[in-house]
Write a structure and sequence with these properties.
about 15% strand, single chain, 3-stranded antiparallel β-sheet, alpha+beta, elongated
C-alpha cells in the first residue's frame, strides 16, 4: 500500500457518520410507527402493511449498506497536498492546483455537502464518470466537478481549512 506524502491531508469515509445516520433513521421509523399505532392509524389492509414494511426495510438496508461500505472501505476519498488534489472517485490521476480555477464547499439543508471544483481541461486527468451527479458537465461540456464530502471523516470546516492551506488563492473563484 502506498504511503501518503508527509505533508498531505487525507480524508476517508467516516463509519461514525454512517452509523449516526443509521441510528437516526431507525429511531425515526420507530417513532413514526409509534405515532401511527397510538393514533389508531395502523393500516388494516395486509397489502398496505406489507408495503410499509418493505419500504422501511429497504431504507434501512440502503443506509446500513452505506455504513458497511464506510466501515470496510478505508481507502482515501480525498487527498490534499502542496502539489495537487487527489479524488479517486472523480479523476484517475492527481489534479495539480494550477489546473484548478476555483473551488467551493456547498452545504445546503436538504442536499449532501459537496466540494465543487472548477478544473481547467479536465480530460487531462481522466474524469471518472461512475456517478452522474459527480460530474455536472457530462452533457454541457462544463468543467465543474462535485465530490460529496459530508460522509468523510472530517468536518466541513476542517476540509475548508486544508483547502485554504494548499490553494488559498482559488477559494470561491
Amino acid at each position: 500500500m502506498a504511503q501518503d506524502p508527509p505533508n498531505a491531508v487525507t480524508y476517508r469515509l467516516s463509519p461514525r457518520k454512517a452509523q449516526d445516520q443509521l441510528l437516526w433513521l431507525v429511531g425515526g421509523i420507530v417513532m413514526v410507527a409509534a405515532i401511527f399505532y397510538l393514533r389508531g392509524d395502523v393500516p388494516q389492509n395486509g397489502f398496505d402493511q406489507i408495503g410499509l414494511a418493505f419500504v422501511a426495510i429497504l431504507v434501512i438496508w440502503l443506509v446500513s449498506d452505506q455504513y458497511r461500505k464506510a466501515k470496510s472501505d478505508r481507502s482515501p476519498q480525498l487527498v490534499l497536498d502542496s502539489e495537487a488534489l487527489c479524488a479517486p472517485s472523480l479523476f484517475a490521476s492527481k489534479v495539480p492546483w494550477s489546473a484548478i480555477r476555483g473551488y467551493e464547499i456547498i452545504s445546503t439543508r436538504h442536499e449532501p455537502t459537496v466540494l465543487e471544483l472548477d478544473v481547467v481541461s479536465p480530460e487531462r486527468f481522466g474524469p471518472v464518470r461512475t456517478h452522474p451527479a459527480n460530474w455536472t458537465g457530462a452533457l454541457t461540456g462544463s468543467t465543474r466537478f462535485r465530490l460529496e464530502v459530508g460522509d468523510l471523516d472530517a468536518s466541513e470546516a476542517e476540509i475548508a481549512t486544508a483547502l485554504r492551506r494548499f490553494a488559498p488563492a482559488r477559494e470561491g473563484d
